[in-house]
Design goal:
Blueprint (H helix, E strand, L loop, with lengths): L9 H21 L3 H8 L3 H9 L13 H10 L4 H4 L10
Helix pairs in contact: 1-3, 2-3, 2-4
């Protein structure tokens, strides 16, 4: 059975991994631990670790944070959203 969930596409999985790499680079540049970022963002350490890893579920769907969560994390990391979110090709993510 083919999934109709767009988060299950290879493009979304790559987007999630790229977002995770950007989160880690910024966190490392600030000298923060994952625990500190998660605490300041008001999310669980496990959730933050999943975002930073660009984790993919058993069903192949990328673990994507909510927009509000990305905004809060960007504030904790003192980064513009554009610095954290990878370039997006809407045609390849349909």
């Amino acid at each position: 059975m083919v999934s109709t969930n767009p988060a299950s596409t290879p493009e979304w999985a790559e987007f999630s991994r790229a977002l995770g790499m950007n989160l880690r680079r910024r966190r490392d540049a600030l000298g923060l631990t994952q625990e500190a970022v998660a605490e300041r963002a008001g999310i669980s350490l496990y959730a933050y670790q999943q975002y930073e890893r660009g984790a993919v579920t058993k069903g192949g769907a990328a673990t994507n944070p909510r927009l509000a969560t990305v905004v809060v994390i960007s504030r904790v990391l003192n980064a513009a959203l554009e610095e954290l979110l990878p370039p997006l090709s809407l045609t390849s993510m349909d």
